[in-house]
């Protein structure tokens, strides 16, 4: 599989972008799309109501390349590297370790905060999460699947010590994460100077989605907007890798609120 060239019909699967996909899955999907764009590897985005259940890990996005199916950014990065494409080959060992540490920070803080907001904030759960998550299915299946997912996420939150947090504490964690990312980025175009890495793709996926997704309040996006170099970073990647793409491009898919950073 590694020796085979990248096929023209490679596909990325995610949930329905208009009515179903949630913030965290949208961010993860956009991160993978950004990574593949940075590698100059063509990918078609295919939306399926049951994408989560089609995935080998139960998580989206996943890619279908030749006869291989690979889910989530980490394994996809390794799969792509085996085919001879890497964004971080130019980094030394210390930089690679630093890159991985910042990627862990994003996953531990931003992704967890997104999951908390979706499934632990009662107003968001009732007004956004349950209606969107269960939208493809008839009653009572839509409610059963939503409550099942909510129980699963809340059990995870309890295991990692987030269940007892208030929304204000979660937003403070997001702010701390954004502060660390802003400090690392500084005035550089990318986190490791002039060339993007997997970290840039991951950060873009989460920050762009937070900035362009309509939630109950703007508190989450305001935390990101406090850091002008991070919003400029998102605009730069959107312009360079997604502007002028087809209607199913990642930038369009991320905008569940139809808002662009460029407008």
UniProtKB/TrEMBL annotation:
This protein's name: Metaxin-2
Gene Ontology CC terms, in alphabetical order: SAM complex
Domain of life: Eukaryota
Gene label: Mtx2
Chief place where the protein resides: mitochondrion
Domain Metaxin glutathione S-transferase: 175-237
Subunit structure: Interacts with MTX1/metaxin-1. Associates with the mitochondrial contact site and cristae organizing system (MICOS) complex, composed of at least MICOS10/MIC10, CHCHD3/MIC19, CHCHD6/MIC25, APOOL/MIC27, IMMT/MIC60, APOO/MIC23/MIC26 and QIL1/MIC13. This complex was also known under the names MINOS or MitOS complex. The MICOS complex associates with mitochondrial outer membrane proteins SAMM50, MTX1 and MTX2 (together described as components of the mitochondrial outer membrane sorting assembly machinery (SAM) complex) and DNAJC11, mitochondrial inner membrane protein TMEM11 and with HSPA9.
Domain Mitochondrial outer membrane transport complex Sam37/metaxin N-terminal: start-end pairs: 29-149
UniProt cross-references to InterPro entries, sorted A to Z: Glutathione-S-Trfase_C_sf (IPR036282), Glutathione_S-Trfase (IPR040079), Metaxin_GST (IPR033468), Mito_Protein_Transport_Metaxin (IPR050931), Sam37/metaxin_N (IPR019564)
Family as reported in the entry's similarity comment: Belongs to the metaxin family.
Signal peptide location: none
Compartments in which it is found: Mitochondrion outer membrane
A GO BP entry: protein transport
